[in-house]
Design the sequence.
């Protein structure tokens, strides 16, 4: 069983900061890429940031404000969000490409999501 659990969401004023965390747990052999997505009501779920090895990629709307990082020993990915704007308000989801123990292939796993609300 593999599980992803996000934390760190909340309510913050415009210009403030939040740090999201996502921990992968269970019987895991290896994790390839990890990323963050967000989805507002009635909207498509969009990529925010992804990290794989030394490579990172960001949505244009968050470049220069958000930073994704990993602690591989803890199977954890972080999203540092600075200079937050009201349009960043969304549910943020963690995603990971995981090879479970005893499996030869990778599978995509999702967390339950954490709410981020930015007030003006």
Sequence:
């Amino acid at each position: 069983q593999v599980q992803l659990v996000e934390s760190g969401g909340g309510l913050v004023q415009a210009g403030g900061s939040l740090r999201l965390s996502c921990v992968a747990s269970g019987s895991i052999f290896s994790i390839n890429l990890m990323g963050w997505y967000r989805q507002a009501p009635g909207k498509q779920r969009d990529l925010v940031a992804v990290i794989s090895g030394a490579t990172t990629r960001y949505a244009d709307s968050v470049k220069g404000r958000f930073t994704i990082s990993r602690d591989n020993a803890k199977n954890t990915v972080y999203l540092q969000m600075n200079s937050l704007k009201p349009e960043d308000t969304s549910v943020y989801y963690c995603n990971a490409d995981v090879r479970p123990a005893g499996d030869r292939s990778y599978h995509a796993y999702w967390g339950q999501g954490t709410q981020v609300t930015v007030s003006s």
Q: What stands out?
A: The chain has a mean pLDDT of 96.
